Amino acid sequence: MKFWIGFFTCLVTLSLVWIQGLTSQLGTATPTSRWVFDAYQLKLKAAEQIATPKVLIVAGSNAMFGIDSKQLSAYWQRPTINLAVNAGLGLDYILAQAKKAARRGDIIILPLEYALYLDDGDANSQIIDYVIGRDPLYWNSLTQYQKTQFILGMAPERWIQGLRQPIDSPVNSGTYGTHHLDNVGDQTFSGREHQQEQDRAAIAIAASPKKAWRYGERALQENGAWERLSQFSKWARQNQLCVIAVPTALLFHKSYKDSIVERRFYESIPDRVRSLDIPYVGKPFDFMYPADHFFDTDHHLQDWARTIHTQRLIKQLRQSQPCSFR
Description:
By secondary structure, the protein is mainly alpha-helical. 52% of the residues lie in helices and 6% in strands. Helix 4 (69-76) packs parallel to helix 16 and helix 12 (215-221) packs across helix 15. This is DUF1574 domain-containing protein.
C-alpha cells in the first residue's frame, strides 16, 4: 500500500511540475526565433497596408534571397510582397501565413523548396520553438493531438531556455533579420562583397557531391504534402486567388540528372503539382545554378543571380500566362 501511495504521489507531483513547466513555455520566446518573428511582422504588415490586388511570394528562404519583388511588380503591374522566410517552419505554417495576407484577386507565387513537397506535417524543432514562444493564435488553432506532438517534441534545451525566460532582444547583426530586409521583404546585403569567409566555406561544402539532396529517394518512401497542397488550392479557388507554382532556386548537382530516381522526381514535379489544380510554370532543371551563384546555402542566391533567376521566371510567366487577370 505504501508503495502505491508513494507511486501516485510521485506521479501527481511530476504531472504538476510538467504542467507548470509547460505553462511557463507558452508565450516565452527564445532568441533563436526572433529574426523569423521580426521578418514575418514586417512582411505581413506590408501586405496588410496594400488595399489593391497584389502579388505574394510564399515559400522558405530560397525566395527571400532569390526573387526580386520589384521585377515582379513591374511585370504584373501590381504591388508585390515577399512573404518567404524560413522553410524550416514547415509547409503548414508557411501556407497559414499566406492565408493571413491574401485577399480576393491576389496572385500567390509558390517557389516552394522541394523538401516542402515532401513535408509530412510532423512538427520539427523550429516550428515547435516558434509557435510555442511567439504565435498563440496558431497554437490555439492546433488540434489536441497536434499540441501533444509539439509538447512531446520539445527538446530539453528548449525547455531550459523557456524556464530561464531569456531577454527577447531585436536582431540587428548577422545575415538574417529585418535589418537586411527591404520594405517589401526581399533580402539585401547578399552580394559577393557581403560574403564572409564562413559563407564561402558553406557553399564549398554544399557543392560537395556528398551534400546532394536525395529527394527522389525520399519521395519513394514518404507520402509528402500533396493532400495539404490540394486543400490549399481549393481554398484559393474559393477565395478567388490565383496560385502559381514555380521552381525553387537550387545548387545543381550532377547526381540530380545522372540518378534515374532523382531525375524522375524533378521532372515529375510540374505535372504532380498541376494535378492539384495549381499551374506550374517552368522546369526545375532550368532553375538550378552553379555554386558561384549562391551566397551562404545551396538555396540562397547572391543578389546578381537573383536578378537572373527572376528574369527567367518572368519569361516563363509571360509565355504561359497562368492567371486570367493581370
